[in-house]
Amino acid sequence: MRGENEETIFLKDYAETPYAIEKIELDVRIAPETSIIRTFLTLAPRAATAPGTPLVLDGAETLTLRSIAIDGLPLALTAYEATADGLTVHQPPTKRFVLETEVAVEPEKNIKLMGFYRSSGTWCTQCEPEGFRRITYYYDRPDVLSLFKVRMQADKMLAPVLLANGNLVEQGDLTNGQHFAVWEDPFPKPAYLFAMVAGDLGSIHDSFTTSSGRKVALGIYCTHGKEDECFYAMDSLKRSMAWDERRFGREYDLDIFNIVAVSDFNFGAMENKGLNIFNDKLVFAKPETATDADYINIESVIAHEYFHNWTGDRITCRDWFQLCLKEGLTVYRDQEFSMDERSRPVNRIEDVRQLRQTQFPEDGGPLAHPPRPDRYKEINNFYTATVYEKGAEVVRMLATLLGEAGFRKAMDLYFERHDGEATTIEAFIKVFEDASGQDLQHFQQWYLQAGTPELDITDRYDAASQTYTLELTQTNPPTPGQADMQPLVLPIQFGLIGPNGSPMSWGAVSGAEVRDDLIVFDKAKATVTFSGVPNKPVPSLLRGFSAPVKLTTNATDADQLFLARHDGDPFNRWQALQDVAMKLVVDAVAGKPWTDAQVGALGDALEDTLNSKELDPAYKALAITLPNDLAVAREIASNVDPDRIHSIRKQLLAAVVGRLAPTLEKVYLTNDSRLAYSPDFQQTGRRSMKNTALQVLVLGSAEGAATLAREQYDRALNMTDRLAALYAVVWAWTPDAEALVEDFRARFTADPLVLDKWLTVVATAPEPDVVDRMKAILAAPDFPQNNPNRLRALTATFGMNNPTQFGRADGAGFRFLAEFVGDVDKRNPQVAARVLTAFRVWRSYESVRRTEAEKALKSLQESGSLSRNTADILERTLSG
Ligand code: TRP
Ligand code: ZN
């Protein structure tokens, strides 16, 4: 049992519970202020359990025990002990028995939003990872699978809708205006997948017929009046269900699938069996208030939670160390879904940008941890970009190593072998070995080792012998708590391009395992030699970003610009442009300004890309999105001065715009459209192209661009165009900026989800008043102090996405964020800990800023008692 002291939980200590819970029946009386929960657990000692072994269940300070009985007989006070951590029955029966407890809980007071709580009048639950213990005494861990039945009772006026997992088996009216519903889930599950919802909700309904002909009733529940904003989510759900049948042969397994949108939620969404609960920002969409990015997120998170039904629910995790077993795999699946629904190259580039922006800094800083950690103090702090996004990259590498058919065969075996189990990463890898015949023991190290590998590839060509050579070097920098790093298995997809721009073939290869277009590099060093190469090729390396590494090469700018025009791999075409632009900025920051010829060459390549007939507008938009301030800071890595980076990057944009303005203006006009809004890939891409062109023009100070932005803001027919125009003026902080920000607030922020957009705009403004503005917003009497979306839209955005103001040399940005964390920690530790992770880059600043950041962190540490969540992040941030 976990005490007040900060204890570390270790993977090596894993042990089964001494008792199995064969069945759980809950009887929940829901009422304002106090709800009563009676729980009947059918418990059985396991074969190896010594008779009389105490039964130790998890609990929390939210529970008030009102009665306790075993097999119908109340327990004597000396027979058990209930504390703020849990419940111990000292000498349970030696054969199967029923433990009956009755507790009182107060959902309205539960502002941590873990367990049973109330959001805008709706009662709901969040149990992952350790919320169920805040509802009743239980083995609150993922390897205890049980059959759940729940009877809910409430006032019919207050809560006409009563939902839980599985199938509705009984419902009816009672006296005194009460009614009830009984839900039964036929699939055994761990407690973290339990959910119930009670409230006065609107809903939309539809159905999906599975490939075997079963009709599934689909429902989305929401605040009254929002029903018309749920249709895109419903459409995404149906497409997800069809896709999982097509791509993975996975059919839905219950007769009902419900989604509930709630306004107060700590994360994006939750995959409870048959009853997904969503942060409402990932459900509601209409063109006037949601952007294209919102639609894209809704589609992918609806898919993600739906896909968990097989990768997470039917097959779950043995313990929380295995979190990436379900999360990495499910992110991989949702990424593939969105690629199939939209565009493979565009989505791949966006996924990699996100990985580099969120996961690389984590992996390179004090909070680095392996996708499968071996210890934790607070599991909530491990729902990270490493577990999710790097976890997905590891699965993607498996797919690359096995090939499409091999991967599908392995996944089939995984579902066949582990259905109904709580399992581990080792078992997952074993499935891939058995299905493919490949030895994946070395590959498995990806799950066990933190840090981003550095891969250097240097090439040379020998004309006399017609041989072409690649020298590969892999470096694995040490990470907190891990000193002896091993080289990892890197699948490097590649191609050789001849002088005329077409693919080149070769004769024989030696020096590493090379399969067609894939080098499998698993050592610190290798020399790969290709014979029968008639001309010096330009190599296209790490195509599609086939391994999550930092790649350096000896390619010249000319090579890169050649790739930008000729590479058959769209990811590397994009990457080549990014590399050239990055080098110009990084060199200039180091005091070596670019030449006109260099900017000219980059500008020409960008112009050719914009004029290409074969590329999608969405792809072109990414091509002209040059590395942002954060990307440049990551590349520079130490002694970072964000102000200098910001101004030099802006100068580069101005230099590029100096040459490209006419083309960008043309692109702007040709992609402008007054068509009725649709969130499809084509229209989204055109808007993205148009709005990126506008933002580049404004940020690069093109003549008339600020006026164009203001006009677009005023006449916009949808939120995508309106917000893009607002960002253009805010990022450039044009003379209009202040007035437009205020206009947006006054005209559009009655809707809380649009208020979040305004808070995000305010938080990302690269100008010195932003800290004072944020303080005033937080101090306003009507600011919703307990809503995670509002809090994060302002503060997490500031910490993560406003490099110049968070990183102010006078420390005001650091102090603001540290003080906010100390304050919000008293209300919602999960939000506090998450916001605090913005400090993970603190050691990369130059010394003045580094000192200020450290001072702010230290004063948070001295400010008094912090939650386990925040103390854990703080301690690691300062020590790592
Ligand atoms: N399992 C959820 C998902 O990725 C994540 C999640 C939802 C979560 N709510 C949470 C994680 C609360 C921790 C705490 O789909
Ligand atoms: Zn998930």
Task: Give a written overview of the molecule.
- With 880 residues, the chain is an alpha+beta fold.
- Among the domains are: 192 residues, Immunoglobulin-like, CATH 2.60.40; 133 residues, Neutral Protease, domain 2 (Orthogonal Bundle), CATH 1.10.390; 101 residues, Sandwich (Immunoglobulin-like), CATH 2.60.40; 122 residues, Peptidase M1, alanyl aminopeptidase, C-terminal domain (Zincin-like fold).
- Helix content is 41%, strand content 21%.
- The protein is built from 25 helices and 34 strands.
- The protein has an 8-stranded mixed β-sheet, with no helix packed on it. A 5-stranded mixed β-sheet has the order 17-18-19-21-20, with helices on one face. It has a 5-stranded mixed β-sheet with strand order 29-32-26-25-34, with no helix packed on it.
- β5 and β6 form a beta hairpin.
- The chain binds tryptophan (TRP) and zinc ion.
